[in-house]
Amino acid sequence: MALLDSIATDKPLLLPLLALGGLLYAIATLLYRLFFSPLAKILGPWLTRISTLPEANALKENRRAAWVTQLFNENPGAVAVRTGPNAVSFNTPEAVKAIYGHGKTADGFGKSGWYDAFSTTGDSLFSTRSTKRHAMKRRMVSHGFSMQSLQTFEPIVDATLEKFMAKMDEFAEKGEAFDIYFWYELFTMDLLGELALGKGFGALDGGKPVRYSSLVEQSQRFANHSGLLPFGKWNVKVLSWVPLPNIQKLYKARLEYLDYAKSALERRFQENRQQTLENGKVRQDIMQRFIEAQDPETGHRMDFDELRAETSSLMVAGASTGSVTMNWMTYYLCKNPTTKSQLLRELQSTFPSNPSGHHPLPFTTLRHLRLLDHIETECLRLHPPIGYATPRDTPRSGAVICGVHVPGGVAVGVPAATLGRNASVYPNPDVWDPDRWEGGKNATDLGTMKTSYLGFGHGSRHCIGINVAKQFIQKMIAQLVLRYEVELEEEGLMLKAKEFTIQKPDRRYNVVLKRRGDTT
């Protein structure tokens, strides 16, 4: 009692006691995380037990996915590694089913607080953590990504492809070596502008990047940094206060990116009824489907802020990932001329009236070509655009994943880049072999391989735009192979991946095109 009376009456003594209490609490927390937490037994650098600094540093150095893979390599046989005080990554097919499998959100494996950083003017289909809202949004927009809808989008894809091929014809005629990945980026920005905003950016016509492209990447980079903070929905605000020049640059890019999306969407609304086809019907693109979307159960329609959030998400999901996938497909086909010749023969026999790719190829036919699909799948196995784990929170009661007990409220996930090269799932995992997806000599169990393939995610939260992506990626590569002989300028080129917002090639490279049938 005397001590309490002293604290109450002696204010100079109060502050030191509070400071001491805070210090003791910090020490107790530190000791608990280091030695007594249920997560303390999980392998990983000791610093990850108490701080997100190792992951933040890897993100800063453009190697977060590679860093996680390195942790597994340093701990052979480990099914899980510690990547942060409250984060664990797994590297088994069983973990994919346990964490991301259908129905798992009902078991408590909901999206973690990391996704809050990706909510902009509202929750998008990607960023919403609410299972109920996600189900409603998916009901509303799923028809917009159906095969039927793809046929209404295809004239837009074909028109943009024609612009791209016209530029390729110029390079082929001059015999100039050029950076094809650069042009893939221009193509996808124009195409997604057409599909999401009703108007391209003029990137192909101008032959140069548009400001919006860099803003998208910088904004997503800011969100990734935000997601490492422990303040939940306040992460973005807190990071915006950090006075580091690099962080402030990324934050300003995020604001400019959102403002641009707002202006573009406002223009899309103003021009909505003006964009009609020759038959008098309203032009059907993805955004038109979003505008018209209505939840059949609740009658809910998306307001402007929701549409703005979906627009921003769509541009990120489609443009950057599509261009880098086409890049890897081109690179590996050039490195593997036997597979390229096999694909050419298959395309020529499938389209005998269009043997040199003078005209766009219908996706309704292309989607049934197994080799083309396996080439894309194998590239995404080796180089998934999102290589790190997309985190889910364990249920309050905790969970046992692959024999590892994880307490409740811990962010768990499976990094696609790590599992995609797991030798126990994919024999000779660093070898590009599309035939493995046929169950060939380099394949073990196709079911296990498909479970481990995370190129488009897994479970109820897998990428809803998978059909749209496959449509323009496969149409592009098929027409390119039919129309040109594509060769690398640098013989013996060896590309590796470097992580920015997504995993891109670690260097620029050139190709040389020659029109089929040319003798010069």
Automatic annotation (TrEMBL):
Q: Does the keyword Heme apply?
A: yes
Gene3D superfamilies (UniProt xref) = Cytochrome P450 (1.10.630.10)
Extract the InterPro entries matched here: Cyt_P450 (IPR001128), Cyt_P450_CS (IPR017972), Cyt_P450_E_grp-IV (IPR002403), Cyt_P450_sf (IPR036396), Cytochrome_P450_monoxygenase (IPR050121)
The lineage's top-level taxon is: Eukaryota
Q: Which residues bind heme?
A: C463
Q: Where are the transmembrane segments?
A: 13-35
Name what cofactor the protein needs. heme
A Gene Ontology molecular function term for this protein is: monooxygenase activity
Q: Which UniProt keywords apply?
A: Heme, Iron, Membrane, Metal-binding, Monooxygenase, Oxidoreductase, Transmembrane, Transmembrane helix
Q: What Pfam families does the database record attribute to this sequence? A: p450
Task: Work out whether the entry's keyword set contains DNA-binding.
Answer: no
Q: Which family does it belong to?
A: Belongs to the cytochrome P450 family.
| The protein's name | Cytochrome P450 monooxygenase
Species assigned in the record: Saxophila tyrrhenica
